[in-house]
Amino acid sequence: MVISGPSGSGKGTLCSRLLQRRPEIVVSVSATTRERRAGEIEGKNYYYISQEEFASRIREGLFLEYAQVFDQYYGTPRDKVLEQLQENRDVILEIDIQGAMQVKKAYSQAVFIFIVPPSMQVLKERIMNRDRESIEEIERRLRESKKELTYIDQYDYVIINDKIETAVDKLEAIILAEKCRSRHISASDIEFSEEELR
Ligand code: 5GP
Questions:
Q1: CA-CA-CA-CA dihedral for 5, 73, 106, 12, to nearest 10
Q2: Burial of 22 (0-12, 13-18, 19+ CB in 10 A)
Q3: 2-181: CATH superfamily
Q4: pLDDT digits (tens, 9 = 90+) for 57-78
Q5: For the whole model, what pTM was predicted?
Q6: Residue 107 to residues 65, 99, 102, 122, 141, Cα–Cα distance (Å)
Q7: Ligand 1: which residue has its CA nearest to atom 19?
């Protein structure tokens, strides 16, 4: 599952709330060249690596996808994600739109979920309230958000993140519904033979 949304849409909080309810779900940990923020933990929020190391991992094909976002590089470690999928676990990638479009090309069976704030005003307030970025950076993120919203129709589902608990309910419902798709059900899941099932 791929989750994207503008900065301030609350996708990070949404994913951590989902994990509290469903600890068996895996949220992939990306590598990034950006500085570690106060309170962030290496290996939990990101793997913090240098530009040189990132470039070398690109050359070695170690990323499932990668992109430059706000002047920094971010990438999803390929091996870790594929390992978890092989173990039949649900994996969430919380990545930007450029990365999501790369995943869409390579893995058409992935499920794409877009998180939006209820209004531009709320988005602005959320970005300003977290007191993390400079005024120029906030304005840049807001401009970028407007562009990002034009990608909504590339996604399978949209969650309007007004109340966090309702948004988590919706995310859980999407995951549940996707697992019930006929293509995910095999004869071994029910006591039917292949002929009886199809
Ligand atoms: P932040 O620096 O605020 O943690 O993240 C900035 C943006 O980078 C967010 O939109 C986030 O979803 C995106 N991002 C985080 N990890 C990855 C990744 O591995 N690949 C891509 N393409 N985007 C990522």
A1: -30
A2: middle
A3: P-loop containing nucleotide triphosphate hydrolases (3.40.50.300)
A4: 999 999 999 999 988 999 999 9
A5: 0.93
A6: 11, 12, 9, 33, 28
A7: 75
Element (H, E) at 143: helix 135-148
76 ligand 1 Cβ < 6 A:
yes
Distance 197 CA to ligand 1 centre (A): 42
Residue 162 CA, ligand 1 centroid: distance in Å? 21
Q: What is the pLDDT along the chain (198 residues), one digit of tens a residue?
A: 999 999 889 999 999 999 999 999 999 999 999 999 999 999 999 999 999 999 999 999 999 999 999 889 999 999 999 999 999 999 999 999 999 999 999 998 999 999 999 998 998 898 888 877 888 988 888 998 999 999 999 999 999 999 999 999 999 999 999 999 998 888 888 888 888 877
CA of 93 relative to ligand 1 center, distance in Å:
9
Ligand 1 within 6 A of 17 CB?
A: no
Looking at the DSSP assignment, which residues form a beta bridge with residue 159?
115
Instruction: Establish whether residue 97 lines the binding site of ligand 1, counting it when its CB lies within 6 angstroms of any ligand atom.
Output: no
Cα separation, 158 vs 155, in Å, equals 7
Domain locations in the chain as residue ranges:
2-181
CA–centroid distance, residue 77 to ligand 1 (Å): 13
Task: Determine if ligand 1 sits within 6 Å of the CB of residue 6.
Answer: no
16 CA distance to ligand 1 middle (Å): 15
**Ligand 1 contact, 34 CB (< 6 A):** yes
